[in-house]
Amino acid sequence: MHPRLAADLARLPDLLRTVGLSANDLLGRLHEQPVVPPLHLPGPGPLPEEGAGLAEALTEFTREWAPLLSASAGPRYLGFVTGGVTPAALAGDWLTAAADQNPTSALDGAGPELERRTVGWLRELFGLGAAHEGAFVSGATMSNTVGLAIAREWLGERRGVTVAEEGTAALGRVRVLSGSPHSSIGKGLSLLGLGRASLVQVPVLPCREAVDPEALERALAGADGPAIVVANAGTVNTVDFDDLRAIAALRERHEFWLHVDAAFGAFAALSPDHADLVTGLDAADSICVDLHKWLNVPYDSAVQFTRHRRLQTRVFQNAAAYLGPLGETPDPVHLTPENSRRLRALAAWFTLRAYGRDGHREIVQRNTACAHALGRAVEAIPGLRLLAPVRLNVVCFTLAEDPTAERLADLAADLKDDAFLTPTTYAGVPALRAAFSNWRTTEADVHRLTEALRNALGRPAPAP
Fold it and tell me: What are the tens digits of pLDDT across the range 131-156?
C-alpha cells in the first residue's frame, strides 16, 4: 500500500473527527457569511506528483476553497428552489459514502430493498396509490426524462412498434403538449430523439402559468393519434398548478399519456392548506419529484414514479451475464439509465425516519409562511411590484419602474451578502424570484431580506 494511504488508514478515526469539525465549522457560519461570497480564486497548479495526505488536503481546502463556496445549504439561499440538508440527511449521506454501495443489483447486499422501502414511504408522503412504483434518479431533469422515455414506449405500443428495439424512426411524428413546460422537458425530448420541436406549448389561463383545459382539449383533438401531455404541479416562476383532475378527465375523450412535473410542487400534499393543489396527481402515468429540493437531502437525489413498470423495464433493462434476471421485482439497474450509482435512498431514509411526515410538513408550512411574508413585504416596499400571487413557496417580483434585466441584476448583486435570488422573466417582464425550501429558513431571514431590499432601494423602513 502506498505510504500516504497506509498512514491515512492508520489515523482514519482521528482524521474523520477532524473532517467532522471542519464540516461543523462550515455549517456554523451559514447564518452570517455572505450568501454568495466574492470570488478570489487560488492560482492553478499542476497535478501533485506526490500527495500530501488527507490532513494537508483538508487544510488547503479549508483555507483556499471553503470560503469561496456559496451558502447554498443555508437559510437565505433562495435561488433555484434549493433545499439544504437536514441533520439526519447529512448523517445518511456520510454513511452512504462510507458504505459505498452500488444499489442497482440485488446480488450485492440489501441496497435495492432499502430503496424500495424508501420509495414506499415517499409514495405515502405524496398521497400516491400502490399502482405507482418508483426509482431513484439524479434530479428533476433525469426524472422527467425517464418519464418521457416510458411515455415514448407507450406511444410506440399504440402505433404497433417497439421503440426500445426499433428506435424512434419507427415511431413517426410525436406531439408533446404542455402549458408552461420546464426547460428540462425540451432537454429530455432532445436526448430521447423526439426533438424539441415535438413540444407544443398550449395556451395558458389569463394571467396564469396554468394550462387552459379547453385549449388543451382542442390541441388533443387536433393531434394525429395518441399524444403526451406534460402537466405542471408547481411552475418555476409562480408555483402555478395545472388542474390535474380536469386534465385527467380529458382521457375519457382523448388518448394520451399524462406526465406530471411535480419537482417541488408534490410537497404541497403535506400541507392541509395546499393539498388540494395536487388533487389528481395519482391519476398520472408518470411523475417527477425532486428530493434535493423540499425534502432537504443532499444533491443529487430525485424520484421517478410510474404506473407502467412493464414499459419501464422494456426501455431500461440491462441484459448481462453478471446481473440477475429481470423477474417480477426488477432490480434498479433495469429501471433507469444508470447501471451504477450511489445509494441515494439512504439520506432520504434517514430524514424520513428521523422527522417523519410531521417534521417535513412543518418545513413546508414554515417555508410557505415565509414566502407569504415576503410577498406582503414586497407589496409594502415602494419601488417594488409583486408580479403574481404567492401560491406556495416562491415570490416573483420586479421593480415598479423601468424593470430592465440590468437593473434587476444590480439589485440581486446588492443583496448577495444577505440573500441569493435568481433572475427570471415573467409575462415578458424581467424579474427576481425568491424560492423558500430550506429547513433552516425562518421569519428572521425574511426580515433580513426585507431590510436588505429597503436599503438597496434607498427606502427606509416605516416608523412603528
Answer: 999 999 999 999 999 999 999 999 99
Q: Closest by alpha carbon to 248, among 294, 292, 281?
A: 281
Residue 11: its pLDDT value, please?
97
- Per the DSSP assignment, residues forming a β-bridge with 385 are 398
* Domains of the chain and any CATH numbers: 22-49+59-86+355-464 (3.90.1150.170), 102-343 (3.40.640.10)
The reported pTM is 0.96
Closest CA to 274 of 369, 373, 203: 369
* pLDDT tens by residue, 190-229: 999 999 999 999 999 999 999 999 999 999 999 889 999 9
List the grid coordinates of 281. 396527481
d(CA 127, CA 117): 15
Burial level of 340, CB count in 10 A (0-12/13-18/19+)? exposed
Summarised one tens digit per residue, pLDDT across range 235-255 is 999 999 999 999 999 999 999
| Extended beta strands in 171-255, E state | 176-178, 199-201, 227-232
- Which residues lie below 8 Å from residue 328, measured CB to CB, with a gap of 6+? none
Q: What sign does the CA torsion over 349, 351, 354, 360 have? A: negative
